[in-house]
Protein: DUF868 domain-containing protein
Amino acid sequence: MRDLASCFGEYAVQVSEASCSSYANHSCISSSLTPSIQNAVICLYKTILSSRKQLLITVTWCKNNLTQGLSIKLGDERFTALKLNSNSRLFRKKKGSKSFEFDCSKFEIFWDLSTAKYNTGPEPVEGFYILVMVDSELGLVLGDMAEEAVTRKLKTGIPAAKFSLVSRREHFSGNTLYSTKAQFCDTGTSHDILIRCSGENEGLKHPVLSVCIDKKIVIRVKRLQWNFRGNQTIFVDGLLVDLMWDVHDWFFNPASGYAVFMFRTRSGMDSRLWLEEKLVQKDQEKVEFSLLIYASPERQKKIKDTQMSFWGF
Structure:
């Protein structure tokens, strides 16, 4: 599959409906299907230290039927700071710490997953913490038990760097129903997102793509086999959010392909859809958020079977 952003320079299809307000009175399509299984979650955080030095931290959670893994990488995913991999039962008992040096800085990582609780995905929802120290400064704090861990393990009054979630990637396999949550800005609320592809087996002449936020349909793409790439701007929490989709491989490369859905916030000052080349022009400290969903139907079992090796576990 080509890179998602590059697809919109050519062959892009713009849906005619203007905004989610067009669907304000519609309820999200109900379904008896069980949502697809989440195999991996990859979160990219941007940390700005008190010295103004910037650092990228990538946290990856991964799980299949046999094993479960966690990795933390620094920089542009070049340096693996921490890698945990074991069967699911033993993984939940993992806790510890690690010290090392990277890019002329001293790092310490503290983690405890021994009481972590999970839903259906590989990422814990409560009962855990991960702390990343950079030169005696808190560079990243994750988990509901993090505050208690900071008080217990670190000195009082330790400075905390500013960090933000820049992007989140989620990999799914199963059917064509995908359910997740997203918070599009630090001050916003968490929203339920449901992506559904309905087909001929449901009495439709052509496949239809529906995207719902908080049980309301925000876009509905008909004749999806022709409109397999496109974009739509919606409004969430007062923000412009570009919603882009590329389901080309569902129709033309079903043996090994997957679909990609992307939600990306942008400033009202931006007059056009985000493209990759704009990254170099943006303010270094301005943080926008992206959610990418990689979706593989059940017939494409290759991705599910190789998920762990794909992420280096």
Residues 5-35+175-310 form one domain.
